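ARCHIVE CARD
Drawer: 12
Card no.: 0347
Subject: one protein chain, sequence and derived structure
Cross-reference: see card 0346
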Amino acid sequence: MRKILLAAMWLLIAFNSYVGVQYLVSHSYDSTGNAAEVGNKPKQVSDKTYRYLRLFGDVLSVIQDNYVKDTDESELIKAAIHGMVSTLGDPFSIYLSEDSKKEMNKNIRGEFGGLGIQVQMEENGRLKIVNPLDDTPAFKAGLQPGDTIVKIENSIVQGMTLEEAVRRMRGPIGSPITITVVRKGMEEPFEVRLIRALIKIQSVKWHVEEEDIAYIRITHFNDHTYNGLLDAINGITKSTDLKGAILDIRNNPGGLLDQAIKIVDTFLEKGEIVSVRGRDWKKAQRHNARPRDRLDGKPLVVLINGGSASASEIVAGALQDHSRATVVGSPSFGKASIQTIQELGEGNGAVKLTTAHYYTPSGSLIHKKGIQPDIEILQEIPEELRIGNKQNNKADPSCATFDAKTNDDGKKKRILQLYIPRDAKKDKALNTAYKLIRDIAIKEGLTSKSKTSRLH
């Protein structure tokens, strides 16, 4: 037992050191910058810390010696680490076991097997769907952002770790799985049966509308997003009469910071894109655009909604602040925290830790406030999808009252709307964007003709 206690104390001391010393960042979800600049120098372990480590060892010893059943000391220590991180009160800071780290890296690479949903474990132990990915089993089954998964097969989710829940939902391609879902506004949980599939996240999709307006949809910022955008632009610029482009980042929950920066840089000639500020403001990072707007200044409209978060808000905020794009839609989610993945050594997993906040070029911190669109458009929710309709299980949680939050001043509630009509003709925000670009093109055409007439 003495050896076990010493090993436990050493593990916690090593954990403390790795958080401070290990600046190498392999990947991050929702962000990554130069971790050496974001992080802080390691602190010396104080006498107070050693006293608490001894207390931890004493409690571990009591459990090992006296609990009614045999226990696994490694599981107890991992649970203690989970508890330590959870006391931060930050749902975005978590301890990742080695298996969880590998699963996260699969997501970042953009290819994995499963259902095609991004999930988050809430503080109350509920497994909340952040977003179903386009054209995946979850998307086709009608799962919605904000749905809560309460059962996976016959196992209750409450009490599971995020790692365990994700592992249970993944499995052999083609195998069935049944999950039980609770949806806001519905009295009873309902079951959804899905077939697992190979999930390949095609983060960029595009087409040219009527040969003169480009539509670019970015669903996530992963390792392939920037290259996907370049491919899209290469295809788009083949149109000889391009009037402008629409960048749709609605219901895009974020991803890699470096990809978001490159996306903004694609449309800017100069200026700051974003600044990242950690605990020490003197070490703030500023990311600036390089010359070359690949659309040559043609009109750009960015579509956002309540599901646009983090990296999406970096893109919308930067293009809005520089007046490079008109932002259309509903207010964004408001997540401006940066998470860094800090490795804990081979086989020991990692810590995903909030290390900084990002600020838009104008110096705004939009955390819990979101990006306000230049032109606010709320979608019309079909009656059969409205919350409170108890006739079916398709009620959409993205109606106008879903997840309404109060601003920090306590005066005004902002509306987080997630609903996007699948029929483009009924998409008010998209149609507004098309009209806006055509109106600008007509206005610029008239101006150009006027100048030409004066030259003759």
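Annotation on reverse: The chain has three domains: 2-90, 100-200, 204-346+355-444. The longest helix spans residues 428-455.
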